[in-house]
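Render this sequence as a predicted structure.
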Amino acid sequence: MSASVRCNRRYAVNQIHGVPRTKPTLRVEQKRQTRRRLLDCARELFAANGYAAVKIEDIASAAGCSRATFYLHFTGKTDILRRIGSESMDPRPVSVYADLDAVLDNATREEFTQWIERAIDWFDRNRAILPAWDEALVLEPGFREPAREAIAALPDAMPSYLARWGADREREARLRIQLLVTQLERFFTRWAVQGTIEISRDEAATVLTDIWFPALMPPQA
């Protein structure tokens, strides 16, 4: 069954059982459901077919709406791909790094290893969309700035960690977090998506902890 058909069937059922009865909120709820439907269908299509092969018409059709309705919610393919990351992932990427902020408050190696394992779990749940992001970065120059902003925003979820580095070294602290993000993403892509790295999950978590736990320690630690 195609991604489009699955999307249509699922949301047909949701529409029958989930339409609000209160008139004042009906339109707002319908717009919210349409936006969610577009996000979910775009994610399924990108995961199944890659970025380049999917057209806006495909997303709109899978969501059961028109191209014009698509443009009421998103400016184009790059915009909806970016919004998938910020709106439809569970948990959101910023939540993963807010979790790291709390872990580094305690500064124990064991807890950091457990965080690495949770981060690998997050990548595993979202592995299908990763190739579409890489493809968009190659094909769409306009996607580079939103992607850069998304990575740069993750240190903002770690205010306690940044504060421990002090204002004069905050830029360095942010860079370390961004490099961690990059290595985890590329490792997971090569390990779980491409299969070019052969290593067990436990060994990966241990080695990544060896590299990153000391590298993330603030100067005073």
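Summary. The chain has twelve helices and no strands. The radius of gyration is 20 Å.
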